[in-house]
Design brief:
Length: about 120
């Protein structure tokens, strides 16, 4: 009995992790980003910033405690808007569930969430 529980406790998180990775991979691919970028640390955040049409220097903001959480929420909401979804999906993306909804659902990437990306030195 203990062995069965041990196997279940090993396989269940593994299945959930694989499903999450596949969902984020598919969402990245829908947005025109390479799917494999979703599993590469730091580069996946750069791709997320591109999907949200935010400047890459926002990566530095993600390293600041508390500010990073707020910025990540903002980025996820903008990505959700880019897929034609609302703020609720963006908040669920912070938990991982929103990525599954976008990756496995019928969402199509229609572009960055709101603002236009400005060139450096322009107003």
């Amino acid at each position: 009995m203990g062995a069965i529980i041990g196997i279940i406790m090993f396989i269940l998180p593994l299945v959930i992790t694989v499903a999450m990775v596949m969902g984020v991979w598919k969402a990245f691919a829908k947005a025109g980003q390479p799917g494999w970028a979703s599993i590469i640390p730091i580069y996946n955040i750069v791709c997320m910033l591109n999907m949200a049409r935010k400047p890459v220097w926002w990566l530095v903001l993600l390293l600041i405690p508390i500010v990073g959480i707020v910025v990540l929420i903002m980025v996820n909401i903008e990505i959700a808007k880019g897929f034609g979804r609302g703020v609720g999906t963006g908040l669920l993306m912070c938990l991982g569930i929103g990525w599954l909804m976008i990756g496995y659902g019928d969402a199509q990437y229609i572009g960055g969430g709101g603002g236009e990306l400005q060139e450096a030195g322009t107003v």
